[in-house]
């Protein structure tokens, strides 16, 4: 065990910090759940890409830097400490990207990954269906083979920012007679294809944050399939693993709001201390964020030693989603009676976006596999308890 | 940057675990705990033969020269197998205190050698604990008089025993007269030494609590996989599963907190006290939940004397408030993180050196 950064790691930290200081947008970008904000975030992603900072862990030929996981943690720490914009293309970059690297053909990697790193293509997910949520194997959308194409019919839902995105990826039933997790294929679909209709769904924040996607005889070439025909479930499980795992929710994402929460508490201490449990809640989330960061460094060390992280990633998902909720709930308690005011309200005292974060935190225990499902996975695969 | 243990360190932990599994089975512990002394010279000798008493004794005094990090693995095993206070108090906390005493303390090296050989029991009376564990049979007790450190032989103290709900505990009120003959450090020299002893005692308890949490989880998993109701193992019911999944999560995320605290103490990190208090609270919460959910999933069996779960629950409830209760450690966390120069935010994870 050695908890010192190497000179090389320190130098990388300095470089990232310096670059962000020079290049951060002067004004806060609009919400990426709006068309205007989405495009502003795309521009920011392009700037990151030009500095080879959009996907630091990807190899140099794909526009990355070939960083290891420790350097990635350092990058994330500097990124969040600088209050840099949210990453708009994470569904592509963090979920589909690693899937393509593991299961994609050389041709697919060349075609999709550099454009994904540069955010020339923006990606949405197409997993859930009206009757396939937590029970994803109940998928019924079909992709039936017709020569060198699939013909897709069906409906997907809860696709984050799909009305602004260029592509979607997801699971479709390629064997019409198959059941459950058999006979599914993993396909990438251009959202401007004929027969695709996208209807926005207004989220809790009143913005078109997600959407339904309808497929009406949409023709997709066979070369848009990842992995073998019928083995989509296997490919998708790897994607779900990445999603729950470390990359999507780096520890810095929680350590930075905790720092701000402590500032918020200190600035409003007299009012907050009328309820002594607020101070305790602040201490609790401080400990939670630290613990999540320490666990991340531990996982990175284990991966570097060649160990695998399996079903424990379900524990991770529960921890960060409940931590995020508690951080924002505590902030709202400190803001008290002005907490309900939108940031545009003249009397708002919320200069960090606590309300917006509070709303989004409500979704954490639901998306990426509901926490009840994660607890089942922990009980069955980590503790070895019998299936129901 | 590498926040993992070496294969050798892991193998060491496994070896300790295998040894204690055979030598400290619950039925053997119950017998020992029912005796007046509550301790077994036989078990103690076997532990010394395994080198457990010599772990943190410097090599020049016949020890293995290991630090707090290795002890953070060792204390988890002590907790898991319910080993009473005397071993960690002697071989870890007291040994740590003695090894930083000034050279003028002529007995220092001799004491360390005796601890390494397993020939001496040392009790420690830190003011944070109202009573002294195992002073009744310690060869000598380290005591605090207005900040001074005194090493007081058994013949110069009177003890009044205070029975605890944890049958493994032997808590003593110690009555003694300070004198220049027993004083081994003045108050000025003693202050940082007592502070470090408190941190080490709290870290020792944190590790034991985490081990206890794991033991209670393992006992509970075994029980719910076997116990049937409605024609099925109760472990197949979601409500039961979720209780135990929550315990597993708490344990998993308390572990790296314990390891950072151990590293910070071993390396003299400026934030060591903060990290140790965080570990005491996090490991205490994991153990507390493991006890609560453990007894719940055991049903009425968990409320009996017969089922072993009770031994580990009671030790948890006792240790949670030992070497600083939760209020003490939360007050230290509070003072540190609300300070103007607190190490907060991304990039400060490993504190200031």
From TrEMBL, chain A:
Signal peptide: none annotated. Pfam families: Acyl-CoA_dh_1, Acyl-CoA_dh_M, Acyl-CoA_dh_N. GO terms for molecular function: flavin adenine dinucleotide binding; oxidoreductase activity, acting on the CH-CH group of donors. Residues 124-218 form the Acyl-CoA oxidase/dehydrogenase middle domain. Residues 6-118 form the Acyl-CoA dehydrogenase/oxidase N-terminal domain. Its cofactor is FAD. SUPFAM superfamilies: Acyl-CoA dehydrogenase C-terminal domain-like (SSF47203), Acyl-CoA dehydrogenase NM domain-like (SSF56645). GO terms for cellular component: plasma membrane. Residues 230-383 form the Acyl-CoA dehydrogenase/oxidase C-terminal domain. Keywords: FAD, Flavoprotein, Oxidoreductase. Belongs to the acyl-CoA dehydrogenase family. This is Acyl-CoA dehydrogenase. It comes from Marinobacterium stanieri.
TrEMBL record, chain B:
Residues 6-85 form the Acyl-CoA dehydrogenase/oxidase N-terminal domain. SUPFAM superfamilies: Acyl-CoA dehydrogenase C-terminal domain-like, Acyl-CoA dehydrogenase NM domain-like. It comes from the Bacteria. Its cofactor is FAD. Transmembrane segments: none annotated. Residues 190-336 form the Acyl-CoA dehydrogenase/oxidase C-terminal domain. Belongs to the acyl-CoA dehydrogenase family. This is Acyl-CoA dehydrogenase. It comes from Marinobacterium stanieri. The lineage of its organism: Bacteria, Pseudomonadati, Pseudomonadota, Gammaproteobacteria, Oceanospirillales.
């Amino acid at each position: 065990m050695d908890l010192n950064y190497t000179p090389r790691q320190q130098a990388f930290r300095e470089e990232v910090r310096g670059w962000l200081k020079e290049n951060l947008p002067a004004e806060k970008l609009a919400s990426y759940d709006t068309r205007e904000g989405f495009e502003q975030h795309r521009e920011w992603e392009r700037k990151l890409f030009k500095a080879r900072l959009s996907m630091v862990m990807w190899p140099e030929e794909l526009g990355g830097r070939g960083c290891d996981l420790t350097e990635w943690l350092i990058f994330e720490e500097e990124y969040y400490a600088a209050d840099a914009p949210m990453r708009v293309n994470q569904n592509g970059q963090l979920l589909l990207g690693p899937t393509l690297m593991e299961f994609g053909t050389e041709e697919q990697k060349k075609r999709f990954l550099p454009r994904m790193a540069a955010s020339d293509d923006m990606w949405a997910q197409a997993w859930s269906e009206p009757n396939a949520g937590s029970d994803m194997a109940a998928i019924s959308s079909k992709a039936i083979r017709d020569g060198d194409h699939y013909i897709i019919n069906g409906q997907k839902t809860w696709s984050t920012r799909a009305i602004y995105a260029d592509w979607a990826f997801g699971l479709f039933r390629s064997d019409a007679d198959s059941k459950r997790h058999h006979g599914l294929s993993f396909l990438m679909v251009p959202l401007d294809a004929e027969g695709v209709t996208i209807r926005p769904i207004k989220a809790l924040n009143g913005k078109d944050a997600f959407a339904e996607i309808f497929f009406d005889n949409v023709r997709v070439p066979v070369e848009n399939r990842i992995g073998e025909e019928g083995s989509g479930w296997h490919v998708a499980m790897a994607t779900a693993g990445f999603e729950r795992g470390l990359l999507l929710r780096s520890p810095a994402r929680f350590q930075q709001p905790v720092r701000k929460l402590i500032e918020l508490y200190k600035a409003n201490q007299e009012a907050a201390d009328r309820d002594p449990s607020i101070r305790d809640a602040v201490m609790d989330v401080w400990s939670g964020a630290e613990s999540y960061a320490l666990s991340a460094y531990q996982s990175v060390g284990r991966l570097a030693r060649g160990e695998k992280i399996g079903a424990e990633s379900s524990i991770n998902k529960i921890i960060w989603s409940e931590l995020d909720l508690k951080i924002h709930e505590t902030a709202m308690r400190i803001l008290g009676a002005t907490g309900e005011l939108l940031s545009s309200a003249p009397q708002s005292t919320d200069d960090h976006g606590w309300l917006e974060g509070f709303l989004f935190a409500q979704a954490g225990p639901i998306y990426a596999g509901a926490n009840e499902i994660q607890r089942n996975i922990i009980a069955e695969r980590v503790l070895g308890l019998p299936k129901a | 940057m590498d926040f993992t243990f070496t294969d050798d360190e892991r193998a060491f932990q496994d070896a300790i675990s295998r040894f204690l599994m055979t030598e400290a089975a619950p039925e053997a512990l119950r017998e020992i705990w029912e005796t007046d002394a509550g301790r077994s010279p036989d078990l103690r000798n076997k532990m010394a033969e395994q080198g457990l008493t010599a772990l943190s004794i410097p090599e020049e005094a016949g020890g293995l020269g290991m630090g707090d990090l290795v002890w953070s693995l060792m204390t988890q095993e002590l907790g898991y197998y319910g080993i009473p206070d005397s071993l960690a108090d002697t071989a870890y906390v007291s040994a740590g205190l003695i090894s930083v005493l000034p050279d003028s303390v002529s007995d220092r090296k001799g004491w360390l050698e005796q601890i390494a050989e397993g020939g001496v029991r040392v009790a420690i009376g830190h003011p944070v604990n109202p009573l002294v564990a195992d002073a009744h049979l310690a060869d000598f007790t380290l005591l605090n008089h207005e900040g001074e450190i005194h090493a007081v032989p058994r013949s110069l103290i009177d003890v009044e025993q205070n029975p605890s709900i944890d049958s493994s505990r032997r808590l003593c009120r110690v009555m003694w007269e300070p004198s220049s003959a027993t004083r081994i450090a003045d108050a000025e020299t003693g202050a940082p030494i007592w502070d470090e002893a408190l941190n080490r005692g709290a870290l020792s308890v944190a590790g034991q609590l985490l081990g206890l949490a794991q033991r209670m989880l393992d006992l509970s998993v075994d029980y719910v996989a076997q116990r049937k109701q409605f024609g099925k193992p109760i472990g197949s019911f979601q409500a039961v599963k979720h209780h135990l999944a929550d315990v597993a999560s708490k344990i998993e995320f308390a572990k790296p907190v314990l390891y950072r605290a151990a590293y910070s103490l071993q390396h003299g990190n400026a934030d060591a006290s903060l990290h140790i208090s965080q570990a005491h609270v996090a490991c205490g919460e994991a153990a507390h939940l493991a006890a609560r959910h453990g007894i719940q999933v055991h049903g009425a069996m968990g409320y009996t004397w017969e089922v072993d779960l009770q031994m580990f629950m009671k030790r948890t409830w006792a240790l949670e408030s030992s070497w600083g209760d939760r209020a003490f450690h939360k007050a230290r966390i509070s003072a540190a993180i609300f300070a103007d120069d607190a190490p907060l935010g991304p990039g400060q994870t490993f504190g200031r050196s």
